[in-house]
What we know:
The structure holds two protein chains of two kinds. By secondary structure, chain A is of the alpha/beta class. Chain A is built from six helices and 18 strands. In chain A, strand 14 (193-197), helix 5 and strand 15 form a beta-alpha-beta unit. In chain A, helix 4 packs parallel to helix 5 (200-212). In chain B, the strands form three sheets. In chain B, strands 3-4-7-8-9-10-13-14 form an eight-stranded parallel β-barrel, surrounded by seven helices. By secondary structure, chain B is α/β, with parallel strands linked by helices. Chain B is 34% helix and 18% strand. Chain B is built from ten helices and 14 strands. Chain B has one domain (4-299): Aldolase class I (TIM Barrel, Alpha-Beta Barrel). Chain B has helices at 26-34, 76-84, 101-111, 133-136, 139-152, 168-178, 217-228, 244-253, 263-267, 271-286, and strands at 4-6, 9-11, 15-17, 39-41, 58-61, 64-67, 92-96, 117-121, 157-161, 182-185, 189-192, 209-212, 235-238, 257-260. The longest helix of chain B has 16 residues, at 271-286. The radius of gyration of chain B is 18 Å and the shape is globular. Classes of the chains: A alpha/beta, B alpha/beta. The interface between A and B is large, with 40 and 46 residues.
Amino acid sequence: MHVPQVLKIKRIVEETPTVKTFYFPWEFKDEITGQFTTSAKFPTPGQFLMVWNFQDEKPMSISSIDPVNGEIGLSVKMVGPFTQSLHKLQENDQLGLRGPYGRGFVIAGSRVLAVGGGIGMAPVAGFTEEACSRGIEVDTITAATTQSEILFAERLEKAGSRVFPTTDDGSHGFCGFATELAEKLIKEGKYDMVVACGPEIMMKKLSLITQENQIPAQFSLERYMKCALGICGQCCVDDVGWRICVEGPVFWGDQLSLISEFGKYHRDASGIKNQF
Amino acid sequence: MLETEICQMKMRNPTVLAAGVLGSTSSSLNWVARSGAGAVVTKSFAVEPNKGYPNPTTVEVEGGIINAIGLSNPGVEVFKGELEKLEGNVPQIASVYGSTPEDFSMVASQVENLVDALELNVSCPHAMEGCGASIGQDPDLTRSIVKTVKSSVDTPVIAKLTPNVTDIVEIAQAAEQGGADALTLINSLGPGMRIDLETAHPILSNRFGGMSGPAIKPIALRCVYQVHQNVKIPIMGVGGITNYRDVVEFLYAGASCVQIGTAVMYHGLEVFREISTGLEKFMKEKNYQTVEEMVGLAHQQ
């Protein structure tokens, strides 16, 4: 049932000055008995949840998926009133969660480059951990504006990934944009696949780089979302009409080339186009 | 075999995408058309852009969903641009709303040349004061809106009515008197609500929302049956249709074609093709040659 399940925050990790990860026990109340059960619908990397703070509801990527301990993590960057309200929450406070929704990343290949820009690292971290646990060699670029905003570097090294931090200001790791480092690594690296999430401009550039180098790539897109059930039409993209909440949020590069608005514009709550 | 016609619109099958589902852009409407729908209705739009209500705007309930999207749309000026990009391989119906007869006719006259028919949304159960069902519960206002729009456009006009009235026949007859070329029955039911057990919060930000999905089918079917007996204009049946058997019931009750909405959530966009395939098989088994000969059969029993 597509109804928010109100769950208590188990613990909160302060990742950076602007990003917190909220961990929840992933369990659902049975509709008939009201008893908690662990759902068979455990999320896969790249899927998202609708998060309800009892005022508003927004889609959020899942950054940590741990079926063994029955827990998931949502990483939230403070960017506006909604995420500010989330950042004020404490352990044992409640949030409503529904999902998981959408199509996540396909986990394949033997050498993969994973690229996350800013809070786009959330689904990329979920991917990297799962892929590493399956014995896939994953190089991860974690890109941020400055050193203090670098996300999940230690966590992903622990998972077995080679991690390449990059910062716009050069305060840590590679100095420059994630795409510059990605291009360099792709040329040296002989990757089977690239996965990416981050600012759309970054992904646009990366899609061109992967095309030029003929490497299959998957990208996680974001659009204004209302129902997440595939019927309101709010997140449909031009010209194909696909719904980000059902056909996405993750698309292969060749699918992406059919999404004409990719890298150009997105629509607001009323459906008016905003250029990137 | 499945071809049918309503308001001079020739349709390859009697399934139509209902207003409010997916139809916010030409891209999604074209995709629905390519997926097998016989015709498409846009999401409702008005003179000015509207953001609608904050989320949550939709929640599932038993037998369907309740929604209070709040008629979000970019306004007629922007929407015209979308209508211009429709591929036009199936008939296109623009759903328009407003709060006065003049609003309706202003929007309708701006887009009439871009579509095959206009559907007047006088029935949204969660629209702001002065719109939607608050109009469609008043026979005089319904008549006057239909009449005003009819006098300002040459394109066929369909009135979409709310079931949330004491006597839907009275409203249907008012729309017919106003000059409506057809009726769409019904819009979502209610409003209804759902409350979270842990926190006692109503889940929808608007608290109340319109109910759609299989649970409202019996009511929609009854409305179609009752109205069919009392008006001469054709009816598009809508409400909880998820498979071809539901379509057959609506045709028997007196609908000339059907609109499909919430079923897209359960079955994806393939639902239009699945329903058409099932309907064709049923018609062959029962030896029906045309959709028309099934319309209203329940009234002969």
